[in-house]
Design a protein that fits this description.
By secondary structure, the protein is α/β, with parallel strands linked by helices. 52% of the residues lie in helices and 14% in strands. α1 packs parallel to α7 and α9 crosses α12.
């Protein structure tokens, strides 16, 4: 069984790494937070002392927060790409900007490595259950090499096309999700003022043309669905800070290529307000708190 080096053991990365351990891989993890590495070791993984330890594994996965963080780990004279032996398989599961992703692909290829960008959707619950949807950009051959590994952390693995298209898909998907959650929150707010109960609005919408994933599976009002953040005082889940990050990525990308996304821009402003009001660590469905007082 091949050895995996895993950089970034946060809310998503740690359960993904543990699922790979359960699948029988030797997983060596690296994170700046000692408790995260302790948890991986307790689950049967190994602790890397340095990034160089990670570079000597057969497969390397990164799950970090920003494009700059991923570049810091992978590029440069002491980066993974330089230190690793030729022909490693590199999988970036971070959600980052398309430009950084394509730079990583190009540098990996120049230094003799195989790379895919493979951001994920499904939140912490999906990471723990191994049911994530994974959007994979890169050459067909690279996708085929990555797919068996990704199937241990995700349920649906989709090859989106050339380098960077996995990130593009994730950015577009989460822009839709952020806008959808705002629309749903506005509908519940309006219904309340019209003396329509949340339960009845939910029943009608989930059986009518307004139904969508955010309503059917992630409703922002407590007491309607089980196991949603709204039922536990909006503990995440997927934080408002992470949704704002992804929406900002959508706006940066749109601006870079000269595409106007009016609803994406408005959604970004509302999530910025939610974060500015001290709710960045709540689930993104807590946007209803802003809508109710908007």
């Amino acid at each position: 069984m091949k050895r995996i080096g895993f950089v970034g053991l946060g809310h998503m990365g740690l359960p993904m790494a543990i699922n790979l351990v359960k699948a029988g891989y030797t997983v060596m993890g690296f994170d700046l937070q000692t408790p995260a590495m302790d948890n991986l070791v307790a689950a049967g993984g190994l602790r890397a002392k340095t990034i160089e330890d990670i570079a000597h594994q057969d497969i390397i996965i990164t799950m970090l927060q920003t494009g700059q963080q991923v570049q810091n780990v992978c590029l440069g004279p002491q980066g993974i790409f330089k230190l690793a032996p030729k022909n490693i398989l590199y999988i970036d599961c971070s959600s980052i900007d398309v430009e950084s992703s394509r730079k990583l692909h190009q540098t990996a290829q120049e230094q003799g490595h195989i790379a895919v960008d493979a951001p994920v959707s499904g939140g912490e619950a999906g990471a723990k259950a191994g049911t994530l949807t994974i959007m994979v950009g890169g050459a067909e051959q690279a996708f085929e090499q990555a797919k068996p590994i990704l199937h241990h952390v995700g349920k649906k693995i989709i090859h989106t096309g050339i380098a960077g298209t996995g990130q593009a898909a994730k950015i577009c998907n989460n822009m839709i999700l952020g806008i959808s959650m705002i629309a749903i929150s506005e509908a519940f707010s309006l219904a309340k003022h019209l003396h329509l109960t949340p339960q009845k609005l939910f029943e009608v919408v989930t059986n009518s043309s307004g139904q969508c994933w955010a309503m059917n599976q992630y409703v922002p009002v407590p007491g309607i669905l089980e196991n949603v953040p709204a039922n536990r005082n909006y503990q995440p889940g997927f934080t408002a800070a992470m949704m704002l990050k992804d929406l900002c990525l959508s706006q940066h990308t749109a601006e870079t290529i000269g595409v106007k996304t009016d609803m994406g821009e408005k959604a970004t402003a509302l999530y910025q307000k939610l974060n500015d009001e001290g709710m960045s660590n709540l689930d993104f469905s807590a946007i209803i708190k802003i809508i109710d007082t908007h």
